[in-house]
Amino acid sequence: MKARTDHGRTTGVRRVVTGLAVALVFLGCGTTVSAGKPRGADPKLQAEAGSFLLTENVRVSAETRADYDNALHLLEAKQYDQGIALLLKVTQKAPQAAAAYVDLGIAYGRLDDLDKAMANLKRAVELDSRQLVAYNELGIVYRRKSDFSAARDSYQRALEVFPGFHYARLNLAILCDLYLADLACARDNYLAYQQLVPDDPQVAKWIADLNARAKP
Prior knowledge:
- This protein has helices spanning about 60-75, 80-95, 100-110, 115-125, 130-145, 150-160, 165-180, 185-195, 200-215; strands at about 5-10, 15-20, 30-35, 45-50, 50-55.
- By secondary structure, the protein is mainly alpha-helical.
- Strand 4 and strand 5 (about 50-55) form a beta hairpin.
């Protein structure tokens, strides 16, 4: 059986759940994030063929927009130090851009600098209380720091913003299952995730495993 791993930026299902690409819109340009079809209207969440578009409108110069795009390319290439340097420039020129802080948080997390990761992700949710990607990534950081109660709260905050956000749903299920020994929470969230992602064979196995362990 595959090990469970956090899901954030990666799109594959592993069993403690990591990263998810951040969607940022600078003056109408955006990126899609695979996170299940949205349920319920939200001005920032737009359905797009089984994915959703999370928008953030920020007025910036063309140079700052180019720096942001280049930073994302560097992060995708795992050139984290260079990507961080560009993102820091972006936050200096556009300090109100929450998504840039999310990307910084993710990048610092990849470098195992959890304190800087947490500081930037917290800044993102200060700027935008509905930044569900930041809440999901904060949950991962808290879990890595063994603050499981705070991790649970962060995943739940992401789901309050958007209940169909399957990354946070699966992360919460795994947290409850492996770290909190809350089998009811784990089962409920595995099943909710399975409704959102019905073709995930690993989760079906994890649910069967949980049910077997729950038997007297």
